[in-house]
């Protein structure tokens, strides 16, 4: 009779961990961050271990803690590897212009002028140049581009 009771207890623990895993994963949808997801994965792993090996509550907590540690570390590694993008200058449009050549819309006088890039007028700083001169963007800071005459850009 005690074997049946321990089997039922183990089955109850399995379902409790499985339900806990589901609740943690559902809670992840309502909260920002990705930690509850990994704790849900750890609870799922604990439930799967209990399906194979009956454990006391202390051992269950140890299995959960170890699984949570592994899941969180693995999740952070996965998230870090996915931070790259196929558009590295997204939301940094000025930096995307560095190295490109443009024609001055207005002359650079007193170190300040303008260029036109597509449908946008950019403020530029650099050595004095006449309107219509070709300049190369050397740097970008905020909405101001630093330019050099194209013939001096290679220097």
TrEMBL record:
Lipid bilayer topology: Multi-pass membrane protein
Main location: membrane
Matches recorded under Pfam families: NfeD
Subcellular location: Membrane
InterPro entries (alphabetical): Membrane_assoc_protease (IPR052165), NA-bd_OB-fold (IPR012340), NfeD-like_C (IPR002810)
Keyword Transmembrane helix: yes
Record key words, sorted: Membrane, Transmembrane, Transmembrane helix
Protein name: NfeD family protein
Organism encoding this protein: Ancylobacter koreensis
């Amino acid at each position: 009779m005690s074997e049946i009771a321990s089997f039922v207890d183990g089955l109850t623990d399995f379902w409790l961990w499985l339900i806990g895993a589901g609740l943690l994963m559902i809670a992840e949808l309502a909260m920002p961050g990705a930690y509850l997801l990994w704790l849900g994965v750890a609870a799922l792993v604990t439930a799967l271990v209990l399906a194979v090996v009956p454990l006391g509550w202390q051992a269950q907590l140890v299995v959960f803690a170890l699984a949570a540690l592994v899941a969180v570390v693995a999740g952070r590694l996965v998230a870090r590897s996915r931070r790259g993008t196929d558009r590295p200058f997204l939301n940094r449009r000025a930096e995307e212009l560095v190295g490109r050549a443009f024609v001055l819309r207005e002359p650079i006088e007193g170190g300040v002028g303008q260029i036109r890039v597509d449908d946008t007028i950019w403020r530029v700083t650099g050595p004095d140049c006449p309107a219509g001169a070709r300049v190369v963007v050397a740097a970008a800071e905020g909405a101001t581009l630093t330019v050099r005459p194209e013939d001096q850009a290679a220097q």
